[in-house]
Amino acid sequence: MTSRARAARTAMSVPAAVGATLLVALAAFFGLQQQEDVRGGGASAGAQHPQGARELGSPDYGVCRGTSAKCYHDWGNFSPATDGYRVLLYTRTAGPRHANLGPALGAGLNPALADTNVVQNALVTMGREHGFTVDWTEDVTQLSTPARLFRYNAVVFYSTSRDALDDAAQTSLRQYIRGGGGFAGIHNAFGTEYNWPWYEGLLGGANFYDHGPGQRGTVVVQNRRDSSTAGLPDRWDFTDEWYNLVPAPSRVRVLATVDESTLAEGATGNQGHPGHGRGHPVAWCQYYDGGRAWLTTLGHDAGAFSTDGSFPGAEHFRKLVLGGIESAMGREPFCRAG
């Protein structure tokens, strides 16, 4: 008799009551194991998970991810002391294009910018004022090899859309992150590469679903020690679209949320998402597949980069983004516990 047959005969001989007890025990075990997996993203990760992530579990992308630096690959691919700090800003759109990106850019690296390329101009200025270089492009061939990307301490996707990467660029980005690269995803970076699970994981296991009307709300800082939130007020007003996410981020360190009670028109999105309740995330960080990833859903309006005080919260948003980029590229401490 084979071992499989003996196991089957043994199972058939177990009394029904014992079998039922065993099933209950197994169910309890796996239920507990699922809860443990959800909490496994780091200290206090369970409390940081937005509504839904706690209840349904978090997706598994087959990589090391979470808030522990054990998931980072420090393989010596960057030498800031020799090369300085450099960032690549990528704003290619293969679908809807946000107005603050201005007209589509020409081919190559650092093509001419118009005054209406607000995001690109603002980040170039930010880098110049804070001692790091920003190159910009919408040419996918500039991301075609890991060697190109390893010239940069961080890659920033700002309001890219749909299938903004070809196969070569996808492979290159993945190899770059696995080699210890930094990534900052801002606003409609969440509306990009919908059908690529690895990229969804890079965003924190999150994806754009819908948003309600653009409106003023209050951002609540949840972590006082991270480089991107240190020095920000506990609460500050800002106007945005307040993205709803499916899935919601998991195994991440939530840095800021929006107080949905301050949204006069509510958090319900145009596709019916009811919002995230008390845990509506707008900024978070994680280690992912060897690299660092800092994320924010904020940044819809051109006014977010204004410096004349006409757009409430613009100064705080710029500080948030600056700290996020600097920490993603390793210049400042990354994803610190609050």
UniProtKB/TrEMBL annotation:
Gene3D superfamilies: 3.40.50.880. It comes from the Bacteria. Residues 39-58 are annotated as: Disordered. Residues 87-325 form the ThuA-like domain. This is ThuA domain-containing protein. It comes from Streptomyces tauricus. The lineage of its organism: Bacteria, Bacillati, Actinomycetota, Actinomycetes, Kitasatosporales.
